[in-house]
Amino acid sequence: VQGTGGSSAVSKCSAAARGYIHDRFLRLLVRRRRRRAPLVHRGYYIRARAVDHCVQDFLLKTQSHPRTQILSLGAGFDSLYFRLKDMGLLDHTVVYEVDFPNVACQKAALIKGTKELSALVGDTGEEGVGVITFSGEDYKLLGVDLSELFELERALEEAGLDSEIPTLFIAEVVLTYMENCRSDALIQWAAEHFSQACFLLYEQMHPEDPFGRVMQQHFSQLNSALHSLAQYPDCEAQQRRFFEKGWTECSVMDMNEFFTCCTPEEEQQRVQALEPFDEYEEWHLKCSHYFVLTASKGMEPSWTPLLSNMTVPHRDGPVRVAGSITAAVCAMHSEISGLRRYGHHSVLIKPNVILTTGGFGEENGQHCRMRDFHVLIKHAGYWKAGCVKMENPDKGWDERLYHTVSCLSNSLALVVGGRTSPSSAGLGMLWLKFPESWSASDPDDIAVELVSLQPAAEPAALRWRHSTTEVIFKGKKYLFLYGGRSAMEPVLGDWYFLHAQELSCTMIPVEGPVPESRHSHSACSWKGGALIAGGLGAAEQPLGSVFFLRELEHGFQWQAVETHPPLIPRYSHTAHVHDGKLLLVGGVWFRSSSVPGITVIDLMTGLCLDYTINVEHLEWPLMLHNHSSVFLPNEKELLLIGGGGNCFSFGTHLNPDPVSLSLSNILTSH
After folding, report:
1. Mean pLDDT, to the nearest integer, of 284-310?
2. CB 594 within 8 A of CB 543
3. Residue 337: is its pLDDT beyond 70?
4. 627 with 613: CB under 8 angstroms?
């Protein structure tokens, strides 16, 4: 548990060094240096921002009181006191910090040995006495085990904590490491013993969905299990907990809500532009698995930092579920690890033959960008997997992610865009050529030739997380290339028509209301046009709109497809059209109470039905984002390939096997 505190201090330090948080004191308190990933920086940024937002609101609301105090539980190597002191916010406030005795002793020694810190706190030079390892005029550092409530109470009394003045308790990922009976007792003690009290809690939730299972496993492996999750799995349970323990006001929100509602737009944009970033799914999943809670009692006026000067969107109720679909691991004849990947693309190149290319995944036990192409062939009810031989691998494949592959004939497919790193330019186009005739029963017989292209359409292709859809205009085939993002533009809203044979960009007029820019949306061919659904918009907010690009005599027209109930905004899903119905598969949304399963939209009536995916037959968490899916219309079978990602600092999860869903029930029952 103490190790988690040290590790989070290193992460905060790294975030401060990159400009996410403004904190010049962290580097003085944290001796270990390690550069963390942009995803981790964002995660620690939102945590620091939530705590600061609430602490400063407490100091503002209580500034008319002659004396106030802050008690930081499990403070670790946090710099809160020094930042507040430096900003001149502690004129009539004393800060008490409590942590394990050895942590408190280390911190006291650091403060004494660092001029800048000891000058700020006004070090009296006195040795610590008993559990009080450091004592300044407005700062007391105590070494006590929080789970020993009797000892904690005695130590705080000795240090001068006053139960009659406004007091803010801070517990930032601390209580969850204690047994529930002990953390509950602490929450109740704070409500009962202090006449004017506020409590700020930041920790994890939603243990049972795929991301939550990976998160729990990570903390268990560190030998620091998260105890509160089973009893208090969500915001509502935590809120009830505080009311039951004697608090009279309590508000709570997950970190997606906090970032959207409590962070000014220009600050959101500042943070989004700090580093090249392309892990939106994991960022939003991390935020939906952490919450900030504020509770108070006896405060006049009442303390509600999560409600003041902003509107919290009405928390959506549970998703209305029309039914569930059972997932089963594919019946395979050969084991193959090469399909453990994300950000790849799978396409049906012939009936019952699926080609998977690119992405990031696992090869020979190593995580890397994937070079190999893989093929799945269905034969006599079983899938056989194999590696595809590449005739000339140096022809510019570049191990790409987030590209598209469009089959133009039995022997020809076009690869468009994709990226290597999010800071480098998008990649161009490639032909994939297959032999005209080959035995479809043996996957290892297939060879692919790569032909790199430098056509006029190149600028159109330098993007990723876009879509490429076959449309028909005046009897001719075109590829409709839409949206995505590039190294320069975090979101694109433009489009191109590529003539399927010559690959030249053709000007075709398009009328109607232009959809807002998006990436990570879905696109399907339908009635000669294209159906675009969802995606991530300009402010990194999921979109719930569906558009149909419809063929007219002289060009195309954008038409909004109205859905009812309205489609829940999502992105990073896949989609298929069958018999007048649009199927949306998986993805990421901000409804933290559940994960997206399969949504069926009737394109005639607009009726929108959500189905959950029943995963009881899978022995591992099924993460349905950055996956690919292929629909086999004759069997009404949906094949899910790959998916997953870097789960914040909890490790990488890759779905180990392809999964099959039978959709015959939901596609015939309408």
Report:
1. 85
2. no
3. no
4. no
Task: Compute the distance between CA of residue 67 and CA of residue 196 in angstroms, rounded to an integer.
Answer: 12
pLDDT at 203: 97
- Other CB atoms within a 10 A radius of the CB of residue 617 amount to 10
CA atoms within 13 A on the CB side of 37: 15
The CA–CA distances, whole Å, from 88 to 56, 85, 120, 447 equal: 12, 5, 11, 70
User: With contact defined as beta carbons under 8 Å apart, do 483 and 518 qualify?
Assistant: yes
| DSSP one-letter code for 401 | B
Give Cα separations from 591 to 197, 314, 521 (angstroms). 31, 12, 18
Contact 407, 448 (CB under 8 A): no
pLDDT at 336: 66
Q: What Cα–Cα distance (Å) separates residue 244 from each residue in 66, 146, 188, 465, 625? A: 31, 21, 9, 47, 38
Helices (H), 122-165: 149-159
The DSSP line for 3-48 is: HHHHHHHHHHHHHHHTTSS--SSHHHH-----PPPHHHHHHHHHHH
Amino acid at 365: G
On whether the CB atoms of residues 135 and 143 are closer than 8 A, the answer is no
- Write the Ramachandran bin of 602: left for phi over 0, alpha for psi from -120 to 50, otherwise beta: beta
Percent of the chain whose predicted confidence (pLDDT) is above 90: 73
**pLDDT confidence band for 309 (50 / 70 / 90):** very low
Q: Three-class SS of residue 408?
A: strand
Element (H, E) at 81: helix 80-86
Asked whether the bond before 301 is cis by omega within 30 degrees of 0, the reply is yes
Residue the block writes with tokens 């009279």: 248
Task: Report the candidate in 53, 74, 18, 586 with the shortest Cα–Cα distance to residue 342.
Answer: 586
Q: What are phi and psi of 265, to 5 degrees?
A: -55, -40
Tell which phi-psi region holds residue 527, choosing left (phi > 0), alpha (psi between -120 and 50) or beta. Answer: left
Q: Find out whether 356 and 374 touch, Cβ atoms under 8 Å.
A: yes
- The conformation of residue 597, written as its DSSP 8-state character, comes to -
260 φ, ψ to 5°?
-70, -40
Mind listing the domains of the chain with CATH numbers? Answer: 47-295 (3.40.50.150), 321-662 (2.120.10.80)
* Of 55, 295, 101, 59, residue with least CA distance to 188: 295
Cα–Cα distance for residue pair 535/490, rounded to 1 Å: 13
Q: In 3D, which of 433, 506, 497 has the Cα closest to residue 469?
A: 497
Burial class (CB in 10 A: 0-12, 13-18, 19+), 97: buried
Using the structure block, give the residue that is written with the tokens 């610590």. 128
143: Cα separation from own chain's centroid: 36
Average pLDDT, the chain: 91
* Spatial CB neighbours of 361, under 8 Å, sequence gap ≥ 6: 338, 339, 340, 341, 342, 344, 367, 368, 370, 642, 654
**Taking phi first (over 0 means left), then psi (-120 to 50 degrees means alpha), and beta for anything else, what does residue 57 get?**
alpha
